[in-house]
């Protein structure tokens, strides 16, 4: 039996700032994971990734596992948890902008 | 110190102009990201987890106060007020923005610096003994040869798209502080029948398949050195594997073909290449050597030092750990620790950089070094100036007396910054240093090198740490593997794995158990951790790391 | 169709004759036999495959003096590398020529300037 599909978000880094970005339901790029679009169908996720990868102003778009939380998508893996916050040794990155 | 001539100056300016153009062409679509990526990498620009990262070359770790001041200025103007010194004697800025990078490179060019070939599948920034020109055990200063190799390798037309990165390290001392046997090419300077030359070692490297380098040629005279190295890279450029990036490094090529086969190929290529060198390189080397003549050492009493050493226990503790023997006995080599317990190993604030630059002007004959152990070195300080220097260091949070001790930890950026990481390394280093500082055991423990990497690429040199820690991702959780008995000196040894790894919250207690096992088992305070491990083997340490199940149950 | 790039910019292919085509994985030990050829084309399957530069260099060292062309995915930023390694010219696709027009290649036509290699290889001054 095929394993159930884990919902995905599309993420990348912005070409100019290098900042972590996410594809929103409106097909724009947003800086907060909670504003990202969560895709529960594999076809749909792959299709949005293909669309997002064509944007010349983003770098390295990829799909990543996420789950629906109270305030929007939540990361499954600790790497994405760091990406949405920032480094643990300095209060820099997204955590400093809140 | 080497200063740029007109050619070097014009070259880096041209290169900045080229890169500015490449950034513009990436933005206007002339270059795809795929095409731009290697171009930005060969100019030191990575895209990391949270932002771009610019890696600036500090060739063979040597830098002057004006350059250090400029690094501070860049940290403030274009970054977040600090820089991170790396295990490859470079400095990294963690937060530059792409459109600012040309201006940063311009600011570097203003002081004779660049970020060329600090990344990418190129010949990387050449590293060398950080005590070069000062160490008591040095026979030959490695910096002139390293500078010659820098010039030869810079923008080498054949070697900008190699199978993988290629690292060269040079040493001229009996004690190897440059880890030359863990480099693609290690160059050990020596003399034979009155002719200066070098032993060339090939195929060392850490990473997924750690290997100790093998001697490719016992003695290559200086006149043949550049063509010989070129022949080696040329052979590997065609022979190295391009189908699997984990098998692309020259250590694998040497392993798969055997050192004798590689040597035969290199010799043959060398005979083809040698005639293309007209001989000016030896004149250039002689000129470069003029840039590295020793400073004029002061001849004055060292009473101030003796007095401070006898009367000030804080100074004495620092002097005992952070000074090394200089070839002039009235002088010392000072290690400024960037490892204050709880701080990020290798990070320095702009203010700290400026105060170190000023110390080099006031007391250090205008020279600083960056060590691969992520500390800053003042290579030439007259002993009479040490108390005053120490006072300034204290005022700038730079007087930690721990060089070579358990809290002087090498840690790569790990998953706090690095896109390739599988786990964090910085907080592990912070945790260990803080814990042993609380225990007040550090000086009791003595010489102990802990090295931490956040993934198999081993930038933190964990394989050659007396205790090595490798952060992995085990089913979505950070997990840390321990190796013991590694050694990165002239007696290079790859450490042995102890067994299963430890979770993030278990790794610091595990290190503590290991260290207690050593303290219990050592013959006396003279026997270092590494010596004890060599005498006793893995067993007592393994027992401490993995206590039998019942005990655990009882303790709970 | 393809576009030929030389120091003067884009030109139409003016070569009449037979090319000897070499792939980027050619064994360097076999190159000597081609030293007398009139024209050789070395393939660049991807711009990140730098073997062609070393092959060109070895061909020249083996005595090949004919026309040498880098053929395939070579980007404008590599033009100086190609020339310095011994190529006479580069042949690129129309798509690449559109994306990286002539002026981007001409910007690298001064490949003899700022060349560390040429510098470290000069003859020793007579002493
Ligand atoms: S060892 Fe891995 S995690 Fe650490 S800096 Fe190198 S690539 Fe990044």
Automatic annotation (TrEMBL), chain A:
Residues 70-98 are annotated as: Disordered. This is Sulfite reductase. It comes from Pacificibacter marinus.
TrEMBL record, chain B:
It holds the Pfam family NIR_SIR_ferr. This is Sulfite reductase [ferredoxin]. One of its GO terms (molecular function) is 4 iron, 4 sulfur cluster binding. The gene is sir. InterPro entries: NIR_SIR_4Fe-4S, NiRdtase/SiRdtase_haem-b_fer, Nit/Sulf_reduc_fer-like_dom_sf, NO2/SO3_Rdtase_4Fe4S_dom, NO2/SO3_Rdtase_4Fe4S_sf. Keywords: 4Fe-4S, Heme, Iron, Iron-sulfur, Metal-binding, Oxidoreductase. It is an enzyme of class 1 (oxidoreductase). Its EC number is 1.8.7.1. Residues 52-110, 345-394 form the Nitrite/Sulfite reductase ferredoxin-like domain. Residues 119-272, 409-545 form the Nitrite/sulphite reductase 4Fe-4S domain.
From TrEMBL, chain C:
This is Oxidoreductase.
């Amino acid at each position: 039996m095929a394993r159930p599909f884990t919902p995905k978000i599309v993420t990348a880094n912005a070409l100019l700032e290098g900042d972590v970005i996410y594809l929103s339901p409106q097909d724009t790029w947003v800086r907060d994971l909670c504003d990202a679009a969560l895709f529960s169908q594999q076809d749909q996720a792959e299709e949005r990734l293909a669309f997002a990868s064509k944007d010349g102003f983003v770098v390295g778009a990829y799909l990543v596992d996420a789950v629906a939380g109270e305030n929007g998508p939540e990361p499954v893996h600790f790497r994405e948890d760091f990406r949405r916050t920032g480094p643990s040794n300095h209060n820099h990155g997204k955590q400093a902008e809140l | 110190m080497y200063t740029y001539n007109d050619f070097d100056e014009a070259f880096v300016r041209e290169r900045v102009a080229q890169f500015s153009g490449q950034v513009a062409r990436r933005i206007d679509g002339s270059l795809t990201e795929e095409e731009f990526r290697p171009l930005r990498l060969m100019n030191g620009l990575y895209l990391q987890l949270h932002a771009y990262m610019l890696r600036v070359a500090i060739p063979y770790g040597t830098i002057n106060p004006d350059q250090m001041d400029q690094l501070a200025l860049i940290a403030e103007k274009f970054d977040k007020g600090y820089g991170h010194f790396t295990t490859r004697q470079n400095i990294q800025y963690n937060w530059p923005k792409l459109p600012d990078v040309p201006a940063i490179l311009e600011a570097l060019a203003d002081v004779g610096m660049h970020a060329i070939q600090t990344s990418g599948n190129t010949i990387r920034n050449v590293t060398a003994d950080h005590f070069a020109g000062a160490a008591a055990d040095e026979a030959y200063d490695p910096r002139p040869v390293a500078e010659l190799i820098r010039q030869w390798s810079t923008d080498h037309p054949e070697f900008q798209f190699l199978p993988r990165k290629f690292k060269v390290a040079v040493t001229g001392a009996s004690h190897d502080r440059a880890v030359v046997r863990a480099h693609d090419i290690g160059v050990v300077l020596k003399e034979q029948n009155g002719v200066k030359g070098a032993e060339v070692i090939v195929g060392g490297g850490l990473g997924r398949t750690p290997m100790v380098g093998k001697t490719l040629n016992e003695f290559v005279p200086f006149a043949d050195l550049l063509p010989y190295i070129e022949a080696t890279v040329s052979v590997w450029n065609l022979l190295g594997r391009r189908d699997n990036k984990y098998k692309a490094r020259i250590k694998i090529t040497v392993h798969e073909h055997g050192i004798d086969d590689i040597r035969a190929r290199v010799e043959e290529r060398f005979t083809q290449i040698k005639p293309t060198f007209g001989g000016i390189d030896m004149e250039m080397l002689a000129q470069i050597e003029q840039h590295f003549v020793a400073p004029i050492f002061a001849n004055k009493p060292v009473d101030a030092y003796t007095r401070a050493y006898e009367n000030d226990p804080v100074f004495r503790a620092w002097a005992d750990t952070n000074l090394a023997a200089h070839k002039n006995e009235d002088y010392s080599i000072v290690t400024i620790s960037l490892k204050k317990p709880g701080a990020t190993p290798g990070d320095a604030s702009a203010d700290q950089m400026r105060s170190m630059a000023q110390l080099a002007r006031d007391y250090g004959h205008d020279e600083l070094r960056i060590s691969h152990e992520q500390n800053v070195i003042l290579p030439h300080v007259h002993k009479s100036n040490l108390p005053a220097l120490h006072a300034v260091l204290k005022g700038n949070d730079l007087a930690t007396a721990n060089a070579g001790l358990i809290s002087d930890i090498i840690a790569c950026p790990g998953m706090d910054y690095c896109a390739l990481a599988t786990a964090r390394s910085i907080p592990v280093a912070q945790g260990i240093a803080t814990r042993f500082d609380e225990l007040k055991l550090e000086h009791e423990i003595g010489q102990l090198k802990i090295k931490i990497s956040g993934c198999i690429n081993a930038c933190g040199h964990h394989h050659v740490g007396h205790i090595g820690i490798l952060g992995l991702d085990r089913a979505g959780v950070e997990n840390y593997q321990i190796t013991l008995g590694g050694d990165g000196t002239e007696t290079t040894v790859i450490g042995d794995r102890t067994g299963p790894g430890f979770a993030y919250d278990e790794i610091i207690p595990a290190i503590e158990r290991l260290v207690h096992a050593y303290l219990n088992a050592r013959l006396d305070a003279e026997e270092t951790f590494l010596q004890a491990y060599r005498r006793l083997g893995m067993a007592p340490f393994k027992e401490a790391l993995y206590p039998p199940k019942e005990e655990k149950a009882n303790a709970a | 169709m393809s576009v030929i790039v030389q120091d003067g910019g884009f030109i139409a292919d003016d070569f009449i004759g037979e090319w000897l085509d070499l792939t980027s994985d050619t064994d360097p030990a076999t190159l000597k036999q081609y030293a007398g050829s009139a024209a050789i084309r070395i393939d660049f399957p991807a711009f990140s495959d730098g073997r062609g530069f070393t092959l060109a260099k070895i061909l020249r060292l083996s005595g090949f003096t004919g026309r040498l062309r880098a053929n395939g995915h070579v980007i404008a930023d590599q033009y100086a590398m190609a020339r310095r390694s011994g190529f006479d010219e580069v042949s690129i696709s129309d798509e690449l020529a559109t994306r990286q027009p002539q002026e981007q290649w001409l910007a690298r036509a001064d490949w003899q300037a700022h060349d560390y290699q040429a510098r470290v290889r000069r003859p020793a001054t007579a002493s």
